[in-house]
C-alpha cells in the first residue's frame, strides 16, 4: 500500500490517531526533509526509517517506490506540512501508482487552504486555489488579470518575504475587493488581518518584518465587476490607446504592457511604450 499522509501544518497536536497509526505501521516513510519529519515522529515516539523524496529526486524514485509497493511494502509519503500533492511533492507518485494499478490510500490531515478560507470570513461557496504567484511583478499582474473573472474567492500561498509585494499586486488588480492575510495557522500566534486590498497592503507594509508562512484569501468579484469583465472580454480594445488604458487600469507594469500590446497589435515595442508614456 502507498499511503499519502496529511501531516500537521503547525500544531503537532493536530495529528489524528489514523495518521499516527499509518506512520507506525509503515515499513518506510518518504518525506521532503528528514529533519522536519523526524521531529513529528519523535514527538509521538514513532521509530520508522525515513528516506528523502523531495521535488528534486521524486522523479528518479518513482520506479523503485512502486516496485517496493508491488512487492508488499507499506510505504507512507508525507510532505513537510499539509497534504502531499497540494503545492508539495506527491502527485507524480500517485499518478504513476494508479497507472500501474497499485493500491493507494489518502490519510486526511489539516489543510492550510480550507483553514484560511474559514478564518477569512469571506464568501467561499466557490473558490480557486492558485498556490504561489509568479515572483516578478509583471508575471503576477498577468496572472491576476487571468484570474480576475473567476466567480469565487482566490487562495494564494506566499512567503513572508514576498507578501507585501504580492499584496501590492492584489491592490492594483482588485482595488475594490476585500483581502485576508492569514498567517501562522494552528500555531500560538495565528492571525487573520482583513481589509480592502489597498488598505491591507499598507497595514502590512507598516509592520515591517512579517513572520510565518502566509495564506492570502481574496474576495470573489461582485456581479457588477463580473459583468464589466465579461463585457470587456466580449468587445476587446478596438485601439492601442484603449488597450493601454485598460492595462494601466488593472496595474499592469508599463514594460510588460508594452511588450504584450506590441505583439497583440503587431507594432514595435518602442512605439507602444512611447504611446504609453
Mean pLDDT reading: 93
How is the largest sheet built, in terms of strand order? Answer: 3-2-4-1-5
Element order: H for helix, E for strand: EHEHEHEHEHEHEHEEHEHHHH
Report the end-to-end length measured between terminal Cα atoms.
61 Å
What structural category do the secondary elements indicate?
alpha/beta
Largest sheet: 5 strands, parallel
List low-confidence stretches.
none
Helix content: 40-55%
Question: How many helical elements?
Answer: 12
How many β-strand runs?
10
Measured on Cα atoms, how large is the radius of gyration?
22 Å
Percent of residues in β-strands? 15-25%
What is the 3D shape?
Answer: elongated
Oligomer: single chain
In short:
The chain is 45% helix and 17% strand.
Written account of the structure:
With 277 residues, this protein is of the alpha/beta class. 45% of the residues lie in helices and 17% in strands. Strands 3-2-4-1-5 form a 5-stranded parallel β-sheet, with helices on both faces. The chain has a 5-stranded mixed β-sheet with strand order 6-7-10-8-9, sandwiched between helices.
SSE layout and pairing:
Layout: E1 2-5, H1 17-25, E2 28-31, H2 34-43, E3 50-52, H3 58-70, E4 75-77, H4 91-99, E5 104-107, H5 112-120, E6 127-132, H6 137-147, E7 153-158, H7 163-173, E8 178-183, E9 191-196, H8 197-207, E10 214-218, H9 223-235, H10 240-249, H11 254-265, H12 269-276
Parallel strand pairs: 1-4, 1-5, 2-3, 2-4, 6-7
Antiparallel strand pairs: 7-10, 8-9, 8-10
